[in-house]
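Task 17 of the worksheet. Students: predict the tertiary structure of the chain below and write it out as structure tokens. Keep your answer in the requested format; marks are given for formatting as well as content.
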Amino acid sequence: MWNRDHLLDRFNAAPAATDDQIEQAKSSLPEFLPSEYVQFLKNMNGGEGFIGETYSVLWDVSKIESLNLSYQTHQWAPGLLLFGSDGGGEAFGFDTRKPNWPIVRIPFVGMDWKEARPIGNSFKEFLENLFVGIPL
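Model answer:
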């Protein structure tokens, strides 16, 4: 579904993640990964490029834990699990404090929940919102 989706026509996708890569990432994270996101990873393990109007960098699943540690996400925004960015100063992440893990956009510098803006209640909705452009 994801690799032929019009939302990702201009996105340079990385090759699919293996089941082992996904399971290893799941085991190193404090929670499960949303099923839509896992399905995305099984078709493309992140990548970089335009999703409609928005430039996006979605991280390789094997780098999520180390990048969250590097950005000290647990210190600045406990419960946030980053998985990508706009290639600049804004990160994309799951709000794991809420049951459905909605997706937010948050600045890397000055990372704080007060600065988080919702951009999707599901991974598919997140992609759709990127496609039409996110208001600044």
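Marker's comment: The chain is about 30% helix and 25% strand. The beta strands are 11-13, 47-51, 54-58, 80-85, 90-95, 103-107, 117-120.
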